[in-house]
Write a structure and sequence with these properties.
The protein has 255 residues and is mainly beta. The chain has helices at 127-130, 233-254; strands at residues 2-7, 20-25, 33-39, 60-64, 76-78, 82-84, 112-114, 120-125, 136-144, 159-166, 172-181, 194-199, 206-210, 217-226.
Length: 255
């Protein structure tokens, strides 16, 4: 299911996981703030879940959980991959835990987005559709099966995960590396699920998530939204107050 959680409307210990996260950044991108890798079982675990994306008339937030079988939230395209259905047809799908209606320690009954033999997935945002490039972007890595050198039916089920985000000028904002993610299994286990994200107020044009040693892995809960930088909010509020005052003064003069 594609979910527009906020769009110009009111906000209505894991075992066998990453042992180390490394963050690097380009010299000109110091304003970018990375999030994760952090454990994730449902949207309330997202660092974006408590943010009011309605502080600006152009504000929006979209959560794509793929439960409708498609990547169809507005203004985003993927370079490769496809939606992978879960139970009863596929026992190896690893969705975010809560997508099947309960947080029960299994992601097998939900859907996910599959890498389809690609080591890199790129998600690109379209400002002409969204109005503004997103200031907040994130995704959840959920599982890896075969890695380079595996011979079926052997699953290594572990590997490094790299998250990179870029601005409109194709400048690298952040490079986050989670070492040795995975639980050694290829089923719907959720202990290794990790959120990767970034905040960059000038706007994120695209991001990549990569497994250098595998083309057999999954992601879920693509999420992106726009909210103005907090430094601009007092000015926006002030402009609104000034406009209201001017309107009131004109009304008084007319009376």
């Amino acid at each position: 299911m594609n979910t527009a959680l906020f769009h110009k409307a009111a906000i209505g210990a894991a075992a066998g996981v990453a042992s180390l996260a490394i963050v690097s950044q380009a010299p000109m991108a110091k304003a970018a703030t990375p999030y994760g890798p952090s454990p994730y079982t449902q949207f309330s675990d997202s660092p974006f879940s408590g943010i009011d994306f309605t502080t600006d008339p152009d504000g929006y937030f979209h959560l794509e959980d793929f439960e409708d079988g498609a990547l169809d939230t507005p203004g985003v395209t993927a370079s490769a991959g496809f939606v992978l259905p879960g139970l009863p047809g596929n026992t190896l799908t690893d969705s975010v835990d809560g997508d099947d209606g309960s947080v029960d320690g299994s992601g097998s009954a939900g859907t996910s987005f599959y890498s389809n033999n690609n080591k890199v997935l790129r998600f690109t945002f379209d400002a002409s559709v969204l109005g503004k490039l997103p200031s907040h972007v994130g995704i959840v890595w959920t599982d890896v099966g075969f890695v380079d050198g595996d011979t079926p039916p052997t699953f290594t089920g572990r590997g490094d995960v790299v998250f990179r985000a870029y601005n409109a000028g194709n400048q690298l904002l952040k490079n986050v590396i989670a070492k040795n993610l995975g639980d050694g299994l290829a089923n719907g286990g959720i202990a290794e699920d990790r959120f990767f994200g970034i905040r960059y107020y000038p706007g994120i044009a695209h991001f990549e998530i990569e497994m250098p040693n595998s083309g057999d892995w999954e992601v879920d809960h693509l999420q992106y939204g726009y909210v103005p930088t907090p430094a601009l909010l007092p000015g926006l509020i002030g402009l609104g107050v000034a406009a209201l005052r001017k309107k009131q003064e004109k009304s008084s003069e007319s009376a």
